[in-house]
């Protein structure tokens, strides 16, 4: 069973593969199997290499003359990994006695993707359900108890108006997200004067900021800076970042936007520009920072919902920045504020964001 030819075939396989004799001892293991289960597994009993009763049952079945078996198991290590295992019998040959072959197929990435999809559907349903239930509730009240109460009617219609707008916003954001995700591998076409674009975005938010005496200060380079990019998408990026800064900051604070050239984009390399959006808010606790760009992730769910947020803004930002082969970073100090930075390459590059 353990001939040079067999070894060559096994070594060429990327999936972990074990050959077992009729006593369930491992007579051969390819490099992937040794990486997974340990270098010294040859000669060991299968029960010691993979401590899973289902695997032993499947091997017993096959060695006892049963059909080929297919089972799914999880292996715990630094992190959990899922494998589909196929067990088939090996007939006795001139060189070797009868035994079994065990082929392991790593399903971790597939299972994670399935889980993410399921979570996403559950999240979307939940997010749509709350405004919808509130609409249904108010329609009932307006038909019944509040039918002739003019003041209550106006109040309820206002709430219904804002809840239905929230649903519309959620759907717009979901469509936006799926559009940028679909295009992520295609480099954007066009050239954008980034200072002008950010000044335009700031102008649309000045009035809302002024209501709470928040000042938006924009400092840019003396000569205009151009980046290859999609104007609408970049508008969405800076609209969300500046909107967040204004939204999550106390009254009478300052939002500082800076545009600068950088000789090297951190982690990606290559020259580019960096746009920073800094606020004087409460800051974001460190444990939340790596998760901010996940869909529907909010630091304070109640607060974000009350402000009409969908929790999709930064997820969209991240995908757009990736499409532009740029980089998004965030630094935050509790009690002092948060700085989001968007790095964009200023020349077309084929480098893919790692
Ligand atoms: N500048 C900031 N200061 C403090 N917290 C922030 C800041 N920016 C984002 N956050 C936190 O990150 C979360 C995610 O932001 P994101 O923009 O993705 O969603 P949102 O603002 O809640 O909703 P949307 O952008 O869809 O309206 C926010 O809910 C908020 O908790
Ligand atoms: Mg936002």
Explain briefly what this protein structure is:
The protein is α+β, with helices and mostly antiparallel strands and 354 residues long. Helix content is 43%, strand content 22%. Helix 7 packs parallel to helix 8 (231-247).
What does this structure look like?
The structure is a single chain. 28% of the residues are buried. This protein folds into 3 domains: 4-106, PAS domain (Beta-Lactamase); 110-183, Helix Hairpins (Orthogonal Bundle), CATH 1.10.287; 187-354, Histidine kinase-like ATPase, C-terminal domain (Heat Shock Protein 90). The strands form 3 sheets. A 5-stranded antiparallel β-sheet has the order 2-1-5-4-3. It has a 5-stranded mixed β-sheet with strand order 7-9-10-12-11, covered by helices on one side. Residues 348-354 have low confidence and may be disordered. Helix content is 43%, strand content 22%. It is α+β, with helices and mostly antiparallel strands and 354 residues long. α7 runs parallel beside α8 (231-247). The two termini are 42 Å apart. The structure holds adenosine-5'-triphosphate (ATP) and magnesium ion. The site of magnesium ion (MG) has 5 residues, from α8.
